[in-house]
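Can anyone check this?
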Amino acid sequence: MKMQDAVGTELRYGSAASVALIILGLALLVANNGGGGYSLQQIASATSRINTAQFPLQDVAASLGNLDGLSFILLGLMVLVATPILRVAISVVAFAKERNALYTLITLIVLLNLLVALLVVPGLVG
């Protein structure tokens, strides 16, 4: 499979999965009149103080079994964020297979920057 085909497939599936999870989460929010310990009115309020940083990955994963709508929405957002990161990882592999050392190195640096910004920096700031 060519790199462009792999990237296109990954972007389509990642986007579709994200949309499906967010729609499911919205339906569950409405059906359950809220989620994540918040009422629908608190979530939908223009002055809502709900922050996605309040929901660690472990809590989101644990709440999925309870059909918590907010957790499904957050998982959908995580999938959306992970989609372009996976694209960069696929590019690293593709460039390495082509034995293109310069682009492999550059893309690997981009991937490491993304991962540090996503996984390390929030822990240092918070």
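Reply from J.R.: I decoded it. The chain has a mean pLDDT of 89.
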